[in-house]
Request: fold
Amino acid sequence: MATNPAETWHRAGWVVTDPETIIRDGTIHVSNGRITAVKSGKAIGPDPVVDHGPGVLMPALINAHTHLELGALKEMLPRTAGFETWVRHLIKARAELRPEALLAGIQAGIDELIDTGCGAVGEIATLGLSKAPFFASILGGIWFEEHLGNILGDFPTIPNDPSGRTSLAGHAPHTTSPDLLAGLKRATMHRNKPFSIHLSESNQEVEFIQSGKGSWADLLRERKIDFSSWPLPARSPVDYLEQLNILDEKTLAVHLLQADSQDFETLTACRVSVAVCPRSNQRLHDRLPDLMRMHATGLNVCLGTDSLASCDSLNMFDEMAYAAKRFSFLSPETILAMATTNGARALGLETEYGRLAPEYRFSSVYAPLTAARPETVIEKIVTAQFCGKVEILND
Reply:
């Protein structure tokens, strides 16, 4: 991580200001952490110049969906036992870990995110343990306090937070009561904050929503979650949330592996953003999201890694490279947008992160790559063709 004077020029062989704009031999002027100018050619004036090299300066990446509290569970859970069994193992393994171990996993995850060029995240926290380390780090983004089960006591509210980086999340339609989901959503609407929820992820979720029965119903009973008053059955998890008035342009739906054509029409009409986590999806469900249909319907689609309990790394370059390999119909520019501008929009950060432009935060990455033509720059970024480690820059 580089630290520089309040007024500084940054230069590199290439500057990618956004997924569609590449500047050869570019320079960026930064004043007190904000970008004031982006141009081609030499710096102007007396301010110092940091020459990063022949590689590329680009926006820091945005991981739209993380669970740092699960970082200590890396390699502790089965890979192929099925989703419900995996959840049972997760609940048991997390309960057996001491808070110090969980906190160590959280800090290791934060360090990995920063070391691999992530500037902002959508962090989902059930225990609340990641809040202090997250706010103490240089990471931007939103810390979501996640809730599940039935209402116990007063409805959760968003605390007064001068940084504006705190919000609420419902875990999922098949784990969180409708009254609690509606209350969480109202609280985020009152503060004009994003609301995150796992949606249409597993076969068990769909079976439960469509019937009120099945193995997931058994698990809820074991967990003492009374769902007898929930408005079930419903046509699909997406329809269920629409009936609860959860879906709008501030809703971030995560995973969306089990959606059909009618669901996509609903999500598009409600202007919902979608976070996909392909590596985690493949590992837990042996299934990938329907990105072709998502993009065809015009949804704002962004990338996340999910947690280290279901993914090998929190490295967004790894996630982009995997997406490029598994979704060959997506252009490199589209994949980079999913990890920058789209994620910023989904988290309500579109005027702060995801671009290198005047008035934006200087949240940038220097990636050491070699490219002779602009046509290959973004392709090399997305496929992580680097000749060294990336460096996060956060004046």
Observations:
- The domain at 7-60+354-394 is CATH 2.30.40.10 (Urease, subunit C; domain 1).
